[in-house]
C-alpha cells in the first residue's frame, strides 16, 4: 500500500489519502508518527465545516501523540466541502448534517478504519474514534454498530438532532445509543454552549451511567460551542487544554 505523505515540522508524516467505501471512493486526511513502529489507530469525524486546516492540524497532533490518525472526509461525495448553496447559517448547518447523515457517514468511518488498520504503521487490534460537533454524534452511532472500537470521545455533539438536520425529517436522539455502545465513551461539553440546549446536555449527563461500557462526562464552565478550535471565536484555551489532556489520557488507558 502506497501513501504520499509529507514530513512536517513536528516530524509527523501527513497528507490526503483515498479509499473505497462500498462502491464509492472517499478521501481522508492521514497523519502517522515520525518514528517507525506499530501504533493504535484513531479515526476522527469532523464538524459541519468539514476537514478544515484546523482539523488537519489536530489530526497531526493526534499522530504526534503516538497514533495512526485519520480524519475521514464525510463530505467526499459533495466535493470535499460542506454544501455551498444556502441562504442562512442555519440552512448551511442543516444541509451539512444531511450530507453527512449517519446512514452514509458510519460506513465511511468504518471504511476509513479498515483502510488505516492495513497501514504498516498501524496496530490493527487497537482503535478509537473522536468526533467534533456533527461528528460528536456520528461516532456514537458508529460505536453502537461496530465492535472494532476500544474507546469513543465525543466533543460537543448535538444530543438530539432537530428534524431539519435529518434525512428522514424526524428528530433523532443520540441518548438511546448509550446502552448500545460497544466501547467506553468520554463526553466533553461547554458550559455556555449556545448551539446546544442546556437541557440536552443535562440529559446526556443524566444518561451517562446507562452507557454499556462506561462513560465519563465533562462540562467546562464558561466555554462555548467549538471551544476546542483555536481558530474559532469561541476558543477557550484553558478548557481546550484540559479537554485534550483528558482525551489523550482516555485513549492511552484504552488503547495502550
From TrEMBL:
Enzyme kind, highest EC tier: hydrolase
Record key words, sorted: Hydrolase
One Pfam family from the record: DLH
Gene3D superfamilies the record matches: alpha/beta hydrolase (3.40.50.1820)
Molecular function terms from GO: hydrolase activity
EC number assigned by the record: 3.1.-.-
InterPro entries the UniProt entry points to: AB_hydrolase_fold, Dienelactn_hydro, Dienelactone_hydrolase-like
Limits of the Dienelactone hydrolase domain: 26-254
Record protein name field: Dienelactone hydrolase family protein
Taxonomic source organism: Nocardia jiangsuensis
Amino acid at each position: 500500500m502506497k501513501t504520499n505523505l509529507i514530513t512536517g515540522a513536528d516530524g509527523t508524516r501527513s497528507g490526503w489519502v483515498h479509499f473505497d467505501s462500498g462502491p464509492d471512493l472517499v478521501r481522508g486526511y492521514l497523519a502517522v508518527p515520525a518514528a517507525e513502529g506499530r501504533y493504535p489507530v484513531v479515526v476522527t469525524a469532523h464538524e459541519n465545516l468539514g476537514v478544515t486546516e484546523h482539523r488537519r492540524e489536530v489530526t497531526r497532533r493526534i499522530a504526534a501523540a503516538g497514533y495512526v490518525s485519520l480524519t475521514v472526509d464525510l463530505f467526499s461525495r459533495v466535493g470535499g466541502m460542506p454544501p455551498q448553496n444556502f441562504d442562512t447559517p442555519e440552512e448551511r448547518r442543516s444541509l451539512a448534517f444531511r450530507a453527512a447523515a449517519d446512514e452514509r457517514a458510519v460506513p465511511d468511518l468504518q471504511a476509513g478504519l479498515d483502510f488505516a488498520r492495513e497501514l504498516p504503521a498501524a496496530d490493527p487490534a487497537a482503535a478509537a474514534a473522536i468526533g467534533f460537533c456533527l461528528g460528536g454524534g456520528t461516532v456514537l452511532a458508529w460505536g453502537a454498530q461496530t465492535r472494532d472500537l476500544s474507546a469513543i470521545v465525543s466533543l460537543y455533539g448535538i444530543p438530539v438532532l432537530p428534524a431539519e438536520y435529518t434525512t428522514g425529517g424526524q428528530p433523532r436522539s443520540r441518548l438511546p445509543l448509550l446502552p448500545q455502545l460497544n466501547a467506553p465513551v468520554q463526553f466533553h461539553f461547554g458550559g455556555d454552549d449556545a448551539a446546544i440546549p442546556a437541557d440536552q446536555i443535562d440529559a446526556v449527563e443524566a444518561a451517562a451511567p446507562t452507557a454499556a461500557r462506561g462513560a465519563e462526562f465533562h462540562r467546562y464552565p464558561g466555554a462555548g460551542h467549538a471551544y476546542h478550535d483555536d481558530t474559532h471565536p469561541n476558543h477557550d484555551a484553558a478548557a481546550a487544554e484540559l479537554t485534550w489532556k483528558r482525551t489523550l489520557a482516555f485513549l492511552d488507558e484504552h488503547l495502550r
